Amino acid sequence: MSIQKTTSSLKGCIIALAAFFLILFLPVADSLSSEGHRLMALTVACLILWVTEALPIPVTSILAIGGQALVGSATLRQASSNFISPVFFFVLAMFVFAAVVRETKLDSRFAQWLLSKSGTDTRKILLAFMIGTAVVSSVMSDVPACALWMALGLGILQQENLKPGSSNFGKVLMLGITIAAFIGGIATPAGSSINIMGLVMLADLGGGEVPFLKWMAIGIPMVVLLIPISWFVLLKFFPPEISNISENPGEKDPSKEPFSTGQKKVMVIFGTVIILWILSNWYPKALDVTMIALIGSVVFFLPGIGVSTWKEVSKGIGWDILLMIGAVSSIGLASRDTGLATWVVSSIFDGAGGISVLWLIIAISTFTVLIHFVVPIGPVVNAVMIPPIVALAIAIGQPPILLALPVIFTASCAFLLPLDAVALITYSKGYYRMTDMLWPGLVISVFWVIILTALMLVVVPWLGLVP
How far is CA 281 from CA 205, 215, 334, 456, in A? Predict the structure, then answer.
């Protein structure tokens, strides 16, 4: 480890420790339990460690579980019980799906096919990349979707000899891939671990359940509207310096070759899983979304199917993400049990009962966008926001779904600065600076809030999700 990295980690640990003891020794608020007060100190310390990465993310996640027992905000049995949730297993299953799709090269096949339709016009290529990223991200984690299309994009930029930091086309292409990955991830509950985690937290906190198909009725219109808007905004901020590329990579399209046996098997299994997910809208008890994902992931390894091996698949499983999701879920439920969530609501949203639902949704969505400046990790945003918002809704007599869904959707709206793991994938290539994302990201975020608010007020009641 470099001296600079060691120094940065040490600073993060010192800040987290100082914040922990500062909060711990402050007077306990009259309306907050002592357990909730101690949990707040632990939560703030863990947030600082997660955001600064002063400790490895999995290590902080382990600390979040053991720390609850250490400070007396929950027993170890309670903390560990809250750690294991359906979200953990759903995300594990989706890592398996993503690994199998990559290994059989189905993702590359789709990408090359889409590029073959775009021609050599750089504006159309950008749109093709954004559509492709969004489609892949709608059924896979944002990270592999972004990584796949970035690799294809880098091939084009190197082909045209476009250097990092000096090419507007390189800048807009890398930004477009990142933003489209975030947007595409909200199309279906399976598009991001953030979605499933938020929905499970909402249900666990007594806020109600959102079926797979009804989520799609909100998510797909958002994606369909936001992708062209984002494409237009990015081109206005960073018009490409070249109008055409010399060679369309889609001309070397492997999708023109016959499907392999492995690809056919994966398509049949994945297609069946998606159909069952949709059918779960009518049969929620018999067709649990997580159960379907788990069984589908097992089918890949059955004798006679065997499209991959566990040794290969396990290489692509993000155990650090799984540990963080479990830890965040545990802290979120503990904040409910100790009264911390209710106290946060009464402190921040005091008087919100007199505000119209329209402005409440706008305020909550906007706050969730802005909180990414200090909490750039989607699952953590859910943990910080959902418990108090559900408590707020109950306190003021509003349906929790109406106020909590904007949080879950907007937890993926993380393109003001490249601080999220998805954005860091493209940012690391040097084609855009950190501030290059801010202004177009801000404009797109405004459209995100407007569109989401309209859907919350029009589509959610029509779907019967609120009385």
Answer: 21, 10, 30, 19
Closest residue by Cα to residue 129 from 11, 15, 9, 230: 230
For residues 54 and 63, what is the distance between their CA atoms, to the nearest angstrom? 13
CA nearest to 66, candidates 80, 56, 46, 53: 80
Task: Give residues with Cβ within 8 angstroms of 197, minimum separation 6.
Answer: 87, 325, 328, 329, 379, 382
Which value, in Å, is the radius of gyration of the alpha carbons in the chain?
22
* Span 328-361, pLDDT tens digits: 778 877 887 888 877 776 676 666 666 788 988 9
Helices (runs of H) and strands (runs of E) counted in the chain:
21, 0
Given a cut of 90, whether residue 455 has pLDDT beyond it is yes
CA-CA distance, 145 to 137, in Å (whole number)?
A: 5
Task: Tell me the three-class secondary structure of 432-446, residue by residue.
Answer: CCHHHHHHHHHHHHH
- Give the three-state DSSP class for 242: coil
Q: How many whole angstroms separate alpha carbon 144 and alpha carbon 147?
A: 5
With contact defined as beta carbons under 8 Å apart, do 195 and 383 qualify? no
Residue 249 and residue 276 in contact, taking contact as beta carbons nearer than 8 Å? no
d(CA 321, CA 50): 11
Domain boundaries, the chain: 1-83, 84-462
Residues 6 or more apart in contact with residue 186 via CB below 8 angstroms: 192, 195, 219, 222, 223, 409, 412
Under DSSP, is residue 121 helix (H, G, I), strand (E, B) or coil? strand
- Say what the pTM is: 0.77
CA distance 117 to 158: 21
Whole-number Cα distances in Å, 371 to 108, 133, 336, 406: 35, 25, 20, 14
Closest by CA position to 153, among listed 178, 185, 136, 134 = 178
Chain mean position to CA 234: 21
Q: How far, in Å, CA of 308 to CA of 327, rounded?
A: 30
Give the integer Cα–Cα distance in Å for 288 and 277: 8
Report the alpha-carbon distance of residue 274 to residue 279 in Å, rounded. Answer: 9
| φ, ψ for residue 172, nearest 5 deg | -70, -30
Contact 238, 171 (CB under 8 A): yes
CB distance 112 to 250 below 8 Å: yes
pLDDT score of 369 more than 80: yes
Mean local confidence (pLDDT), 179-208 = 88
- DSSP-derived letter for residue 6 is H
Q: Return d(Cα 68, Cα 335) in angstroms, integer.
A: 11
The pLDDT score that the predictor gives to residue 69 is 92
